[in-house]
Protein: tRNA N6-adenosine threonylcarbamoyltransferase
Organism: Pelagovum pacificum
Amino acid sequence: TQTPLILGLESSCDDTAAAVVRGRDVLSSVVLGQAELHAAFGGVVPEIAARAHAEKIDHCVEQALMKADVTLSDVDGIAVTAGPGLIGAVLAGVMCAKGLAAATGKPLIGVNHLAGHALTPRLTNDVPYPYLVLLVSGGHCQFLLVEGPEEFTRLGGTIDDAPGEAFDKTARLLALPQPGGPSVEACAAAGDPSRFPLPRPLLDRPGCDMSFSGLKTALLRARDGAMAGIGGLREQDRADLCASFQSAVSDILAEKSRRALALYLDRSPAKPTLAVAGGVAANGAIRSALQAVCAELETEFVAPPLALCTDNAAMIAYAGGELFTLGRRSDMSLAARPRWPL
Ligand code: KG4
Ligand code: ZN
């Protein structure tokens, strides 16, 4: 049997995306961002996101099919993110996918957005099961033992904010553009990471749970300290604050990865691989910190290319392909789910 050709759709947050994938071969991956629509509001506005997805998704699908040089009739299945995410946003993708499935008679496959991120290392690097993945994004932060396309065991994760959220809040506090991750990373390049001693919460506790909310309070205090007396923030202060924040997040993720690898080895005798996934995995400092831990522990480290770390539909099509091969199909009752733990 031939590897299925899958059209994937993604619309769970603020990126409208479609892709055509056959196995590990990404024939096309189109991502239409909405950053400019939300810029004035300092964060993603759910209503605006949902409307923009509904307006753009058809065009996005057309582009993906055209770039892959295939038509809908060549496709074996239509995979769509069915959650978790902003309900109106997810719904826009699910409605579009149902329409395409109904019109063509092609099978529909509902995919969990987090599974899409967690399976990305298999799309980019052919990583065999089982492996350990650190999923770090705007809404999520967890260590998962991945034993199959539907078999995820959570070993630990954040007890409050996700690191992407912390990056976004840091950007807001320092008047940097959204999304915060890339702008904080760029600003940190010229900064001194040791200037502001920010906390590394929970590092003294066993296990691999994490906390990031105390970090933003500490950052706010450090910022106000730097502004005191001069009434504003100097460029160098801003860079030092970004670098100090990024280094705190890197330290937390690196130390907890060490713990997660130990937990993983308790459960699985196979040679460990640590993969990262999710938007925050695009961060260079975080990648290097994790790379260093893996080098030290003689563990394989896999970090997908940036475009496949942040939200995209290739990961949804890939995950959909694995599910398709297992015989999984969704029907027209497929629901959009705001919450859907793995
Ligand atoms: O996975 P993703 O695209 O969307 C979901 O949350 O599912 O992740 C988006 C998050 C945002 O919070 C963004 O600020 C963060 O990933 N991000 C980064 C970087 N690029 C994106 N965080 C740190 N450094 C980056 N270079
Ligand atoms: Zn995501």
